[in-house]
Specification:
It is a single chain. The protein is mainly alpha-helical and 63 residues long. It has one domain. The chain is built from two helices and no strands. Helix 1 packs antiparallel against helix 2. The two termini are 19 Å apart. 10% of the residues are buried.
Amino acid sequence: MFDFSHPFYRPLWLRIAITLVCLGWGVMELLIGSPGWMVVGFGFGAICAYKLLLTYEPPAEGE
């Protein structure tokens, strides 16, 4: 669905920022009492943390 090996995601600070924004969205929805969107925010945050931080492999130099 998403190409997590795209060169756009190469900088570590960007991958961390994307993950924190998604998790922050989940926290915000938790605080305002919206459980459905909270699950979506935390779900995106978990996917980003796994794909962009734990298992990220940078693209080859030629790409």
